[in-house]
Amino acid sequence: MVDIVAQGVQSISRAALLLRIVSRAGEGGAKTADIVRESGLTRPTAHRILSALRAEGLLDLDALTQRWVPGPEMFLMGTVAAARYDVSAQAHDIVRSLAAQTEESAFLSVRRGDETVCLIREDGAFPIRSHVLYEGVRFPLGVASAGLAILSLMTDAQVDDYLARSGPLLAPWGDAHRPEALRERIARTREEGYAVNPGLLVTGSWGMGAAVFDRAGQPQWALSLTGIESRFSPERRPVLGRILLEHAHALSKRLQAR
């Protein structure tokens, strides 16, 4: 009986993993080979689960591209879940204000497990923009400035636990995201109150982030800014940081009151 339960839990975990991989791929979808590689499953196992998810309408296989994409049931479930979890309606004007005051691209991201997912993007008036972040893109905690801001406000025990298990998740992002390097940026973020990403994702594209808290006082979301390096000079960063923190505080108060 125990073995049957364990097998059922494993199957659900694997199906959830494949759903996340496909959704992370964005509108273009994910190739079977990429899903197999990223999941670590054998090709027959991955294909069997993908086919089952397709039969339930949770995934679909594009006939032209042969890439896996979210299915209609995912849309319907997401529509229902949005009523409880989507904060976009409460946050849009604050993200828009952040972009207007700084003239940079502004974003709202939400924490989902060990990742952040970008929910909202608003471009500022400055004509040169960074396109590292866009709606739906996911990053491991500590990689983009939003995730670094959230990670830095977790407890030391939570940070230790995350860094101990996140090696495979962080490895593709290079040496700058090894535990020792992340710990240094976490300490700096705690000291300054906001996170800075000095072009670690794309050379010349900088980011800054500040955490937004839920009713329980947990860092559940983050506001962030991205732009070219010259716009994030040592003289301007404290100004941007102050504006970020003001907007993050305003959004925290609003979401805690809803």
UniProtKB/TrEMBL annotation:
Residues 9-72 form the HTH iclR-type domain. Keywords: DNA-binding, Transcription, Transcription regulation. InterPro entries: GAF-like_dom_sf (IPR029016), HTH_MetabolicPath_Reg (IPR050707), Tscrpt_reg_IclR_C (IPR014757), Tscrpt_reg_IclR_N (IPR005471), WH-like_DNA-bd_sf (IPR036388), WH_DNA-bd_sf (IPR036390). The keyword Transcription regulation applies. One of its GO terms (biological process) is negative regulation of DNA-templated transcription. It comes from the Bacteria. One of its GO terms (molecular function) is DNA binding. SMART domains: HTH_ICLR. It holds the Pfam family HTH_IclR. Residues 73-257 form the IclR-ED domain. This is IclR family transcriptional regulator. It comes from Microbacterium sediminis.
